[in-house]
Amino acid sequence: MPPATRRLKAPLQKQDGTLAARERGTPQGSAISPLLANLFMHYAFDAWMARKFPAVRFERYCDDAVVHCASEKQARQVRDAIAERLAQAGLELHPQKTKIVYCKDAGRRDDHEVTSFTFLGYEFRPRLAKSKYGKHFVSFLPAVSAEAMKAMGAEIRSWHWAKRSDKSLGDLALMFNSVVQGWINYYGRFCKSELLCFLRRLNRHLVRWACRKYKRLKRRERRAMAWLAEIAQRSPRLFAHWRLGAHPDGWAMGAG
Fold first, then answer.
1. Across the chain, what does the average pLDDT equal?
2. Could you tell me the CA-to-CA distances from 2 to 22, 32, 37, 234 in Å, in that order?
3. Mean pLDDT across 56-76
4. Contacts of 130 (CB under 8 A, 6+ apart)
5. CA 95 from centre of chain
C-alpha cells in the first residue's frame, strides 16, 4: 500500500477527465480514508478529551460521539470547549445533530426539551422496565431506532417476495436467514421486544408469498397465516425470527 502521504497528495480527477492538485483531504471512497480520518479524530478529539476532561466519559464511532456529563451546566461547558477544539482542527459541530440530552428516568424526573438521542442505530430514551422483583419503573434504555427499522424494512421489500413463488419455505430461509440473524445479533442486544415487534412483519410477507404460490390459499390470508403457524409449530427454528420468538401464531402481525 502506498504511504499515507502519497494518498493525501493524489490528484482529484474531475468529470471531464482533467486532474486537479489536492492540497488537503483524502480521495472519497479510498480504502485509507476511514483509517486516516479515525487517526485524525483520535488526536483531535479522543486524546484531547482525555487531557482536558479526564473525568468525563465518552464514546466515539467515526465522527459520531456521545459525551456523558453530570449536569446541564457541565454539558454546555464541554460542548463549547469541543466546538472550539474542533474549530482549531478545521472542523465544526453539526448544528442540528449536536444536542444536550436529559436522560430522564425514575430518578431524573425534570422536564426538558430533548430526552432522547440516536447512536449507532439505537435510540436511547425513557422506557418502561421491570426490576428483578417484578416492579415496573422508567429507565433510560436503548432499543432499535426508527431509522434502523426503516432501513431494514427497505431491505426486506427489496427481496421481492411475490416473485419468489418458485422457491420453497426452506429456500427462503436459506436466502434470508443470515441477514435477519445479523439484525438480531446487533439490534437484539437491548430491549429485544422492540425488534421482535418489527420482525413479525416478516410473517406477513411469508403469508403473501404463500397466497401467491398455492392456489388453495389465494386471497385467503387468514388461512395462510394458520398454515404458516402450523409449520412454525413443527419447525420453530426454520426462520431466524421464529427462533427469536416472532412466531406466526396470531393474525395481528404488524404492518406489512
1. 88
2. 16, 10, 17, 57
3. 95
4. 136, 137
5. 22
